[in-house]
Hints:
By secondary structure, this protein is an all-alpha fold. The protein has helices at residues 2-11, 24-44, 47-71, 83-104, 110-116, 119-123, 129-135, 143-159, 166-197, 201-215, 224-233, 241-248, 264-285. The protein is globular and about 55 Å long.
Amino acid sequence: MQAERVAAGELERLPEIVFSDRSRLVEGVRAYGLIVAMWLRSTMAYRASFVMTTLGNFVATAFDFVTIMLMFAHVDALGGYSLPEIALLYGASATAFGLSDLALGSMDRLGRRVRDGTFDTLLVRPVPVLAQVAADRFALRRLGRVTQGLVVFGYALVTLDIAWTPLKVLMLPLMVLSGAAIFGAVFVAGAAFQFFAQDAAEVQSSFTYGGTTLLQYPPSIFAKDLVRGVTFVVPLAFVSWLPALYVLGRDYPLGLPEWVAFLPPLVAGLSWVLAGLAWRAGLRAYRSTGS
């Protein structure tokens, strides 16, 4: 709580920031960095607390993979996939989601701000609103989730016998970074929905936290309608399933062609365009609580 008060005190100084004449995107990135820096300073003021909460985050998320390992104590394969293969799916999706959650995880607090009227304070500051919402209460402890995902990802790469090619090597950072961008777009779109629903944080979580849990398992164990939904409606399949299956040399679900594995950057860009439009529509539709 003391760390939050320190950051809140610095946040009140944001109206003093004068932006030069530049694009809204550059302004937003700069504002986001300034707010994040404030929260980082407040976090580092209590380093022992930071270390403990980060370790706690690491351990708590590690239980997801422990559950998978317990399954393999009784079976040799799950949906035709071995433990190292599922570890690759798990590591890719967990790392991508962890990066997005670190950068934009505070977006799910928007509904609370709309309900209690504190969102109005963000509108009067000369700072892009999306940057303020995204950086609000930036929690560096979420690095624990990213680290845990990277550990499982590394285990999979060391254990699997993959015939490496330059394209497969390139696919590893491509799917993690593109996957993080896709999850980020889902965070923003979910926040935009809260302008209308106001109490839809759980709906948003079903696509973000629920989405990463879904992607930790192979597509072969899910119904085809569900796989179609996360491929063509909410494109979470491009986070890890499709690029990871290319690395593993596995057949794609729904008979998709091989080149779709290289679409995650394009899908991420399109997702952000749609999320941006949804955010602008939600912001225009916002009406103050009047309190």
